[in-house]
Amino acid sequence: MAELHVELVAADRKVWSGEASMVVARTTAGDIGILPGHQPVLSVLQSGPVTIRTTGASGEGTVIAAVHGGFLSYTDGKLSLLAEIAELADEIDVERAERSLEQAKADADAAAERRADVRLRAVAAGR
Amino acid sequence: MGAQIRVLKRRIKSVTATKKITRAMEMIAASRIVKAQRKVAASTPYADELTNAVTAVAHGSDVKHPLTTEVERPRRAALLLITSDRGLAGGYSSNALKAGEHLTSELVSEGKEVDTYIVGRKGVAYYGFRERAITDSWTGFTDNPTYADAKMVAAPLIEAMERDTDKGGVDELHIVFTEFVSMMTQTPVERRLLPLTFEKSAEESAQVFAKGAQAHALYDFEPSAEKVLDALLPRYVESRIYNALLQAAASKHAATRRAMKSATDNAEELIKSLSRLANAARQAEITQEITEIVGGASALADATAGSDR
């Protein structure tokens, strides 16, 4: 089967890169699943968890990342996920995310609340 | 001890203390350059991918967007000038300011009004002293800029780009920062950020030519090309500004290191010449003392010889 090369890049670092068999991400128009051989696509991502089913050198498995805004572009077997902020599920500090969720709820800060919520969902999905 | 020697000794002591300080600052700057360079490198993948995506949209669709279309007669331009918060960096800030002045006069001669946005206390002080208008300024993060800082700087600029020129908006966005070429070379550069230009170097277009129409993959845009461009361009501007801030920070540290290195070298030289003077003074004093003793002794000898007779 054709391979899918994935690059997950945040504004200040490369978060993850490797081979995958499928990637599911949330765009503004709804969830999108990318398999190898997909038509070239460029879409706007929404804050949400991104699921990467890995194959190849990184082994069979699932990588989940919390992505806050950004873009997804796919051409010629290469998928780029660009995000201002992106964190892998195992990098996320659950306690801190919970605390910031509480804080955001108290301050009625919708953006911060969504960020914290996405982090927690990504961790939950990774378990 | 003679008064002259005491003065020289005191000066040597104070120069030695200064040398210690400049040496320490040199070391600190050297370690920060490496860190800043690493940050520049870490931000490159994002900037590259974003540039690819913007190029793809611009080539793959004929969408008109205020941030990409050139106005027929641009009347107003925004200039973002990146300087540092602190001095002791040789000609770093003044070089950037000079490049800013150059670009400003060029834009004015083209008949455009210039709105100046400044990053760094040095630039703010320069404009403040000359009582020139600053549209907006930011200070406090030039040594170690984060992406959030770049976002903060980019927001009013993008907003001004999108506003009508009659309502105080701008038609063009220029940026002046110091490019980090190497440890020894940092050059101030002037770039036009918006409207976008897809001018490529001859080398790049040759590559595209060799690889065929790879650059023109037909993309599907979701939800639509306009929406994608709407979301993409502000991010593009932010990432460019972030990159400029990081390069400016690396350049600042490199300039500081160089300035402090020459200060240390100068201090060393000064200590050397002062020690020579001190040694000469000490020697002169000793010679004088000996002359006095010998003179005294011979006078005494003469006197005794005279009384014997």
From TrEMBL, chain A:
Subunit structure of this chain's protein: F-type ATPases have 2 components, CF(1) - the catalytic core - and CF(0) - the membrane proton channel. CF(1) has five subunits: alpha(3), beta(3), gamma(1), delta(1), epsilon(1). CF(0) has three main subunits: a, b and c.
Membrane topology: Peripheral membrane protein
Domain of life: Bacteria
All residue ranges annotated as the ATP synthase F1 complex delta/epsilon subunit N-terminal domain in the record: 4-85
GO MF, one annotated term: proton-transporting ATP synthase activity, rotational mechanism
UniProt similarity note: Belongs to the ATPase epsilon chain family.
Protein name: ATP synthase epsilon chain
Protein function: Produces ATP from ADP in the presence of a proton gradient across the membrane.
Keyword Coiled coil in record: yes
Keywords: ATP synthesis, Cell membrane, CF(1), Coiled coil, Hydrogen ion transport, Ion transport, Membrane, Transport
Listed Gene3D superfamilies: F0F1 ATP synthase delta/epsilon subunit, N-terminal
Keyword Membrane: yes
Any single Gene Ontology cellular-component annotation: plasma membrane
Chief localisation class: membrane
From TrEMBL, chain B:
Segments forming a coiled coil: 260-287
Any Pfam family matching the protein: ATP-synt
Keywords attached to this entry: ATP synthesis, Cell membrane, CF(1), Coiled coil, Hydrogen ion transport, Ion transport, Membrane, Transport
Record has Cell membrane as a keyword: yes
UniProt-listed InterPro entries: ATP_synth_F1_ATPase_gsu, ATP_synth_F1_gsu, ATP_synth_F1_gsu_CS
Protein name: ATP synthase gamma chain
Family note: Belongs to the ATPase gamma chain family.
Single GO molecular function: ATP binding
UniProt xrefs under CDD domains: F1-ATPase_gamma
Biological processes annotated in GO: proton motive force-driven plasma membrane ATP synthesis
Membrane topology type: Peripheral membrane protein
Domain of life: Bacteria
Description of how the protein assembles with itself and partners: F-type ATPases have 2 components, CF(1) - the catalytic core - and CF(0) - the membrane proton channel. CF(1) has five subunits: alpha(3), beta(3), gamma(1), delta(1), epsilon(1). CF(0) has three main subunits: a, b and c.
GO CC terms of this entry: plasma membrane; proton-transporting ATP synthase complex
Role noted for this protein: Produces ATP from ADP in the presence of a proton gradient across the membrane. The gamma chain is believed to be important in regulating ATPase activity and the flow of protons through the CF(0) complex.
